[in-house]
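Bumping with the actual sequence this time:
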Amino acid sequence: MNKLGVGRNRGLVRALSDLQLQVGDSVVIGVREELLLRGAFLVYLLPLVGLFTFALFAQWLGLSEPLVILFGLAGLVLAWLVVRWRSRRTAGDPALQPVVVCALLVGTV
């Protein structure tokens, strides 16, 4: 997070750990690459696919431009709701959680 410029205003991240840690300890967390890619697909690509699919379907039906726009927005919202539902459903799954790789010594980052 330091490399991203977050600095002292860090957010909270829930991560699994076998280490004895206290709230506020500095740690290194790891996320499986597969989960990162799947998450990026869900959050960024799926809403765009929904938007374009619904808009192209409305275009194919021969609807007017305002209706094509409304269909596209409906596809975007529907895909966003699917992403939100999926993230809530899988939030507690331990297989999808980040893990603590190691704890950092006090004063090191």
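The tokens above came from a reply further down the thread. Residues 40-103 form one domain.
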